[in-house]
């Protein structure tokens, strides 16, 4: 069920209407329970619309992690210290705790591997190992469940937090199921933590006009980013990279290729941040505050700064549950570098089952490590850092977008094949007047949409939260909402194209 579809809009309106139609408080003791059950059923239905049979996977994840968390808490009641090194009965309890944790990790990551990485493993084995051993693999082909990377990480964080003693195990399985399946952020995040989200879902929210307005404004901004900006940029990007995939990279203008790389960077930002805006807005209408997932990442002054601003929920997840678990920076500089590279390797692999995604993650990791001296310099002009970082981000996103390594190598070879000064001039003219055939309506929509977004960014001076609708005084807020609405109506592209991060 796509967020930017009439079916979802009708679904969301119906759920919100039923949610607030039931009073809560002393006058209706069952109101709060009914609301939570309603959201849970709606969330399960939302996921089942895609593939009903795959609902069993998310229910199995919920059941296993809920049970293992209860076991971890039960075995830890006699312990009064850390989870290791305790003598006697406590030591045995710690072993049982670890076993429960391992069961949860193996089950969740096993499902993730089977449905997301099994084909990738088969392709890698047949390409690298099979020619030497003469035993190619022929594994079953499984359809990737929508949102499995997101809800798996969210569920795992809960079990790990219970193991670390940060939160008590949830005793109500329905409440825990709601935490995992809450439909605004189920498919593509933000990846929430139990200490932040579960208490909010347990509250009996009363209707708040301010929350409704803020949520609607945020949803409107998300639709603008998706329909007016991302999908129009995608027309040009797809045209270029389809030709690259077909083997025509060397016949294309280098400037066309460069513009396509820049456009894809903006496309994926507007696409993903647009989804996050819609998810945060819908949750806000229910009185739930989801974490911000973006903070003007394209204005970052370094790769380090970029990952503090881009997909913040995923970055914080890897930092908390992988980087710190590996020892962080407490075991010396060489070990810290290895830990950083491991995190970025896994981050790339998380995004997709292909070596191009791994390369994208490793490129960021290497740049993260190499630019450390840069970050220590007293830079008087932060725009130098912004320009350098933007160029690196664009180059790295080209491997993210490329269908395979061969296409990306051809893309890079053609990109830097400018030749003589005359060739550069011809490439510029080709990009402006010819190049890839793009409908004039697409160009106009992109120009107008980017102008609107850029004007608002300048007026709000970039905004520490990436120009969030609803932060300005009333007149400005309603003005921008009107501008967004008119842009969506007259310039929006409603081709049914899903969000890019739905595939992860």
Strand content: under 5%
Summed up, the helix count is 19
User: Distance N terminus to C terminus?
Assistant: 16 Å
How many β-strands, per DSSP? 0
Radius of gyration: 24 Å
Order of helices and strands: HHHHHHHHHHHHHHHHHHH
What characteristic shape results from the CA principal axes? Answer: globular
Which percent bin holds the helix content?
Answer: 55-70%
Structure notes:
The protein has helices at 6-21, 31-48, 55-75, 88-133, 148-163, 173-181, 194-202, 209-245, 254-285, 303-309, 312-323, 333-351, 355-370, 372-376, 382-401, 405-415, 421-433, 440-459, 474-491. By secondary structure, it is mainly α. The chain folds into 3 domains: 19-207, no CATH class; 211-299 and 403-503, no CATH class; 302-378. α1 runs antiparallel to α2 (31-48), α2 crosses α6 and α12 (333-351) packs antiparallel against α13. It is globular, with a radius of gyration of 24 Å. The model is unreliable at 78-89 and 462-467 (pLDDT under 50).
């Amino acid at each position: 069920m796509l967020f930017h579809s009439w079916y979802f809009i009708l679904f969301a309106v119906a759920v919100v209407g039923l949610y607030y139609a039931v009073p809560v408080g002393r006058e209706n003791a069952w109101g709060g329970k009914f609301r939570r059950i309603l959201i849970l059923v709606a969330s399960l239905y939302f996921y089942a619309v895609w593939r009903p049979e795959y609902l069993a996977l998310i229910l199995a994840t919920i059941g296993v992690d809920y049970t293992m968390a209860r076991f971890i808490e039960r075995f830890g009641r006699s312990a009064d210290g850390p989870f290791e090194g305790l003598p006697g009965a406590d030591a045995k309890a710690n072993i049982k705790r670890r076993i429960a944790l391992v069961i949860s990790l193996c089950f969740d990551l096993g499902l993730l591997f089977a449905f997301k990485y099994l084909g990738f493993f088969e392709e890698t084995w047949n390409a690298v190992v099979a020619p030497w051993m003469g035993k190619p693999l022929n594994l079953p082909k499984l359809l990737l469940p929508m949102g499995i990377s997101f809800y798996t990480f969210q569920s795992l964080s809960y079990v790990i937090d219970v193991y670390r003693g940060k939160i008590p195990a949830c005793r109500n399985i329905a409440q825990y199921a709601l935490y995992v399946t809450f439909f605004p952020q189920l498919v593509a995040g933000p990846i929430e933590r139990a200490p932040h989200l579960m208490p909010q879902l347990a509250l009996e929210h009363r209707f708040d006009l301010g929350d409704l307005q803020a949520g609607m404004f945020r949803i409107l901004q998300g639709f603008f980013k998706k329909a007016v900006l991302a999908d129009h940029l995608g027309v040009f990007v797809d045209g270029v990279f389809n030709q690259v995939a077909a083997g025509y990279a060397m016949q294309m203008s280098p400037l066309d290729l460069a513009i396509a790389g820049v456009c894809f960077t903006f496309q994926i930002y507007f696409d993903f941040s647009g989804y996050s805006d819609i998810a945060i807005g819908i949750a806000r209408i229910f009185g739930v505050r989801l974490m911000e997932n973006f903070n003007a990442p394209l204005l970052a002054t370094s790769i380090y700064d970029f990952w503090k601003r881009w997909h913040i929920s995923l970055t914080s997840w890897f930092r908390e549950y992988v980087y710190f678990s590996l020892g962080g920076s407490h075991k010396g500089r060489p070990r810290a570098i290895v830990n950083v590279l491991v995190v970025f390797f896994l981050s790339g692999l998380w995004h997709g089952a292909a070596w191009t995604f791994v390369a994208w993650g490793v490129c960021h990791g290497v740049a993260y490590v190499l630019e450390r001296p840069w970050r220590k310099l007293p830079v008087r002009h932060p725009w130098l850092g912004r320009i350098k970082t933007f160029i690196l981000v664009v180059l790295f996103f080209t491997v993210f977008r490329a269908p395979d390594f061969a296409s990306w190598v051809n893309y890079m070879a053609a990109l830097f094949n400018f030749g003589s000064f005359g060739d550069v001039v011809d490439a510029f003219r080709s990009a402006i007047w010819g190049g890839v055939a793009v409908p004039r309506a697409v160009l106009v929509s992109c120009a107008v949409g980017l102008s609107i977004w850029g004007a608002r960014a300048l007026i709000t001076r970039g905004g520490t939260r990436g120009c969030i609708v609803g932060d300005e005084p009333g007149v400005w807020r309603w003005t921008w909402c009107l501008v967004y609405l008119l842009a969506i109506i007259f310039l929006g592209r409603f081709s049914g194209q899903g969000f890019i991060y739905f595939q992860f």
